[in-house]
Amino acid sequence: ELAEQEHNRPPQRLSREGLGWKGLLWMLESDPTGAPGEWQAGSVLLADHGLAVLRHRERYLSMECGGRPGGHGHPDLLHVTLYWSAPWLVDFGTGSYVSASLQWYRSTLAHNAPGVSGRGQLSRLGWCVAFDDRGDWAWSQAQASGLLGPRSSAVRTLVAGPDWVLDVLDVETPAGIEVDLAMHLLGTFALPPGIDRLPGSLAPPATSEYETGYEALLASSSLSATPPQLLARQRGQELFVGLAPRAGERCHLASAVGPPNLDLAEGPPLDFLVRRARDSGRWVCVYARSPVALETRGSEIAVTRGDRTDIVRIADGDARIRTASGARVQLSGKRPAPIGAPPRAVRRAVMPSLILKEAPSVSTWLETVPGPAVLALGAIHYRRSEEAYDPTDFAARVAVFGAKSTLCFGVDVTTSPLVVRRPDAPDPELDNESADIHSDGVQCYVECDGWQGFLLLPDLDSSRVYIRPVKGTMADPARITAEWERTPTGYRMLAEFEVGRPIRRGDRFPVNVVINRMRPGRQRRAGQLALSGGGWVYLRGDRESPDAAIVAEMK
Asked: What is the 3-state secondary structure (H, E, C) of 303-331?
C-alpha cells in the first residue's frame, strides 16, 4: 500500500482493500490461515536490503548490516532498532525535506550507531557475518570496513534471549581516532545515584564538515562516570539498560530534536547518551524489561537478573550461552563475506593531464593545453532534467593540468543566453539545496587534504568569479582563485587550486568538474555536464561524491 503513496496518519492495520495494483505481483491467493492474532512473524535476514531482524513475541530487534546493493544512503551502518512492547530505539526517519532539520535526521549522530567524533561514518561497506534463530535464542553479527576511516573496522553483535538483549560493539582503529556511540532512548530516562552532570561540550572544534549532526545539538554535558544502569519510561512501560564501562571512555548527555511527528514537523527535544572513547576497544550493554546488571569477565559477559546469571561468550562465528539453569545454547549461522569485501581499490577512469611551466591566462588556456589533454563533454556526460541533450545548444571542453604548485581547471562552455544568479539574490529555498546550483556556473572538486568542492559563479560585471565552498567537504576557499570571460559561444573559466607543493609527473588527483545550465524564467537548472558521467539531474545538490571522481594523472 505504501508503495502507491505516503499517508500522514496514525498507524493502523492494513487490509487487502487498500492494496494498490502492485500488490497483486506478490500477494498470496488466499488469506493466511488461522484466527486473527495467531500468526506471528519470525526472525529474518534481508541480505539484499542489508537488514537483520530478530523477533520474539512482543519484541522486534533489527540491525543495519549494509551491503551492496542493500542499504540506503544515510550513514547509519550498524544502527540498532528495538521495539519491546513499546518503541525504545528507533530510526527517526526524516521530517520535511525542505527544512534544515533534514541534516540532523540523516546524520550518524541521530542514529544508534558508531561514528568518528565530529564527523560520523566514513564508509557504507558492511555485511552480515552471522545470523541464527533457535526460537527463544537468536543472534546476528555485522561487520563494517572503513567505517571509521582507513584501516578501521567495526563489528556489532546482538544476542537475544527470552529476557534480555545483549549488544556488543568492537571497533578497531588506528591510534588517536576518537569514536562516538549514540543511544537514543525514547521516553524519559533517569541517571542512577552517584552519576552527576558536569559542564562539558560534546561537539568537537568546528570544522567545515556539513551534516555531521553535531552542529544541530541544542545542549550537551559530560557525565562524571559511565552509568552502570539506565531506566527508561514511556507509555506505562519500562526498559532497563545495563552498561559495562569501557577503559578510557567518557559519557555525555546531549539534546537534539526527537522523531518527527505525523505532520512531518520536528519532534520535541530529546536527551540521548553518547559514549566516547579513543582507539580500539569494546562497548557492551544489555536491554531488559526487569532490573539487569552487566559485568565483563575477560572474554565472558555476565548478565544478571536478581539471583540468576547467564554467561555469554562471543567467538569467531558463534555465540555460546550458559544459562543460570545450566542449559547450554550455541548460535552459529556464520556467513561468508560477500565477493569484493573488503573492497578492492576502486578502478577509476583516468584522464591525461599535463604539467606546464606556467599557468596560462583564462583567454589562452585552451590554445596552450595540447588537444589530447582537452576532453569534450557531450551526450554521455549530460545529466538531463526535462529536455533531451542538444549538442548545438550546450557543450563544454574541460582540461585539468598542473603548473608549478597549482592544479588548474580549464572550462570552455557553449551556452546561450548566460543566466547567472547574483550573490545577493534571495534564496528560493528549493529542496534544501544551495541556490547557487540553479545558475550557469561551474562546480569543481579535488581530493587533496580531503575531498574539496567549490561552486564558481561568474560576476557578470567583471572578470571576477564568486567562489563558495561546498558544505560537507573539506573545502578551503583560500586555496583557490578563478577568472572568467565571455566568448562568442558562451563563456570560458580558469580556476587554480593550490596543492601546497610542486606538482610532479606521476601525481594522481581524483577530480570532478560539473557545469550547470540555467535558462531564463526557470526556477531550477535545466541540466548539467559532468566529467564523471551523465544520468539525471534530480536530487543532485552540490555535493558530488568522491566515489565518482576521475583521476587526473600528471604526465
From this structure: EEECCEEEEEEEECCEEEEECCCCCEEEE
